[in-house]
Amino acid sequence: NDGFRIHSRKYYRKQLEIDFIDLIVAEYKGEIIAANILSCYGDMASYIHGSSSNKHRNVMAPFAIQWFSIQRAQEKGCKFYDLNGIDEDKWQGGTRFKRGFRGEELEYPGCFDVVFKKGCYGKYQFLRKVRRLVGKILNR
């Protein structure tokens, strides 16, 4: 984990139950070395999650799997491919990787919580922190 938040296995499995979500896997010598979760909805394809092993870095599986994902999206009629976020401060390697595809960078407003009851929001934030901590412990 390069500082990315990891969800529970159940979270990823639930995503894969959706009909417009695909799991794309790269294998090398019988071993899975990279994977993407790809959403193709309407004319937009989105790289939702991805992971790669440090083993066999020389075969460039993350690049190959992205190219395959782009081709898969085109086959499904998608006109756009969203690599889903860059940030030079938080994700230097991921940002460099995504910029290597030479696409157009678009900036959107971030996600925000709208608070209606302050007391409830504090409880929500606490439970969210506990859930993330438990998730980290269980995913080791």
Briefly say what this structure is.
With 140 residues, this protein is an alpha+beta fold. The chain contains 4 helices and 4 strands.
Written account of the structure:
The protein is of the alpha+beta class and 140 residues long. It is 37% helix and 22% strand. The protein is built from four helices and four strands, in the order H-E-E-E-H-E-H-H. The chain has helices at residues 9-16, 61-75, 92-99, 118-138; strands at residues 21-28, 31-41, 44-52, 80-82. It has a four-stranded mixed beta sheet, with helices on one face. Strand 2 and strand 3 (44-52) form a beta hairpin. The mean pLDDT is 87.
Shape: globular
In angstroms, what separates the terminal alpha carbons? 10 Å
Mean pLDDT: 87
The percent range for strand residues is: 15-25%
Report the biggest beta sheet as strand number plus sense, adding barrel if it closes: 4 strands, mixed
The SSE string, one letter per element, is: HEEEHEHH
As a whole number of angstroms, the C-alpha radius of gyration is 17 Å
Helical proportion? 25-40%
